[in-house]
Amino acid sequence: MSRTPVTVTVTGAAGQIGYALLFRIASGQLLGADTPVRLRLLEIPQAVKAAEGTAMELDDCAFPLLAGVDIFDDAAKAFEGANVALLVGARPRTKGMERGDLLEANGGIFKPQGEAINAGAADDIKVLVVGNPANTNALIAQQHAPDVPAVRFTAMTRLDHNRALAQLSKKAGVSVSEIRKLTIWGNHSATQYPDVFHAEIAGKNAAETVNDQAWLENDFIPTVAKRGAAIIEARGASSAASAASAAIDHVHTWVNGTADGDWTSMAVVSDGSYGVPEGLISSFPVTTRNGEWEIVQGLEIDDFSRARIDASVNELSEERDAVRKLGLI
Length: 329
Ligand code: NAD
Ligand code: LMR
What we know:
The protein has eleven helices and 14 strands.
């Protein structure tokens, strides 16, 4: 077992996702079975007591990898020495809202957290933003952390990626493990574009294997893009365990690398690839290695895909303009 614990800061620790996430981190599923973790939990003052209750339960699990839990209501302290930061704390949408409707309510959370990361996080800090609207909240945090490389700020589209894997595996009648190279492009919103044209099922092109354009357009894409709303409709609350699971997957893949011949979807700062304006935090196909990600290059984008990628990226540009107007960046 490696001796030095990795410090993981989790915001919104007393929330739904927090409750599903913390036990998996503490049991070693985030960073691996040989990596001890020290948790630093951030909550608003009213929710600190509930976070303390969760910490008591973490103690009661007697996880061998858990080196300690500290709870804060001050961002500056919570991010001190953080190697990994999971920015979950934010209001979820309720029925009838789009995630973008949360910009004003949640955007303000991410400026001070970006500043706190800039001031106190470890040099190797990796940030995953889960709180919605995740891409633009990540942009806000990143903009307020000028000393941290922008590539360390990411937002979560892994849940969308996993949803797409599940839908495609059902349609094709194969296990998800036979599917590779799926991509979520753009925003974690209803405009996102789940792309199967470069995906493979058991080594063969997925779109050709499925061979059902009507299903792709009228079923697959809207089902994946609107799944968050469907969960809210069914559960009366936004997805939590699946979101926590995707957050675990995102960081695990970032740290441990993508499999040869595969890639994943992460919202990362654009370098202009695929016509996505530089600086936007947009979802791309990415490979990871040695703790660093790289956008997969050279994919051919046909008109069908181009129009959908552009629509989602335009929405991200509009969100960026909106938070500029709000004075958040
Ligand atoms: P929740 O309301 O159950 O929990 C949110 C927690 O955040 C609360 O305990 C609240 O006290 C805390 N919080 C609020 N402001 C905070 C701050 N400034 N600092 C620290 N903590 C703060 O919500 P949830 O279901 O856990 O969802 C959290 C967020 O994740 C929501 O914005 C939701 O929309 C989003 N989400 C994103 C994805 C994704 O795929 N990116 C998936 C699911 C949910
Ligand atoms: C999801 O995709 O489930 C989350 O972003 C929650 C939501 O508001 O849809």
